[in-house]
Amino acid sequence: MTLGERSIRVLVAGAAGRMGREAVAALAEDGRFHIAGALVRDPGRAPDGLRVFTDPVHAVEEARPDVWLDLTDAESVVRHVDLAISFGVRPVVGATGYGAEDVARWQKACEERGLGGVVAPNFALGALLMIRFAQEAARFYAAAEIVELHHDGKKDAPSGTARRTALLIRDVTGRDVPIHSVRLPGLVAHQEVIFGGTGETLTIRHDSLSRASFMPGIRLACAKVMELSTLVYGLEHLLW
Ligand SMILES: NC(=O)C1=CN([C@@H]2O[C@H](COP(=O)(O)OP(=O)(O)OC[C@H]3O[C@@H](n4cnc5c(N)ncnc54)[C@H](OP(=O)(O)O)[C@@H]3O)[C@@H](O)[C@H]2O)C=CC1
Ligand SMILES: O=C(O)C1=N[C@H](C(=O)O)C[C@H](O)C1
Fold first, then answer.
1. For domain 125-209, which architecture applies?
2. Where is the Dihydrodipicolinate reductase N-terminal domain (predicted)?
């Protein structure tokens, strides 16, 4: 999707990270997008060939992005998204670790401005289906627990996906769901929702085996956000 004749200008915050580097490559090979800038902490680690910024205000003022794709971390994402919205730049929030109160504030601010936004705790199709199936199963079981397993470089726990899953199950059952976090080398991103019943269990599991699993969702969010006039929480709002 383009704004008239031109490409969608995306600012990638956290462009030097594991996700940022893959997102830059995935957007760059898609003609709908132009990477207007890369926000990094250390310019020496920025992907080649991009306009590099270390100050978020300069990034917004000079790169003039349509979309702020945030793939930083829990410490930075909240102030970045507040800033982007205040400048009228559409946020696509991939980073995790924010609170429910942050999402509520972003929704209100976007609503007031008629600005599109996407908060996506998980961009992988299978993860969205796992959450949906877990919500359905939750109606039939008295107890559930979540086990989320990630690579040992992940900074936040529990994961954004696990927190979102627990919230959506609570919407259905009114019950809180315990979350267990595992961090180990060799893992990428995995989650099990285990339901316990009478003499049986049901396990719904999703595995992201590589970060390629997140890239179609990132492209979808960066394109569709241009058509929105409110902020949606969960990529599923763009899929079903
Ligand atoms: N929604 C989804 O589907 C997915 C979400 N994620 C989330 O995305 C985020 C990034 O994950 P990942 O790539 O593995 O993490 P990394 O630590 O590899 O990357 C994060 C990058 O952001 C940079 N960064 C942090 N703060 C700033 C800032 N203020 N300005 C500029 N750069 C900054 C870091 O720099 P430095 O290294 O110098 O600190 C680092 O390069 C996490 O929150 C993770 O949970 C991850 C996978 C999928
Ligand atoms: O840090 C990661 O890797 C991931 N983070 C997201 C989360 O916190 O849920 C999404 C996915 O699990 C990968």
1. 2-Layer Sandwich (3.30)
2. 8-123
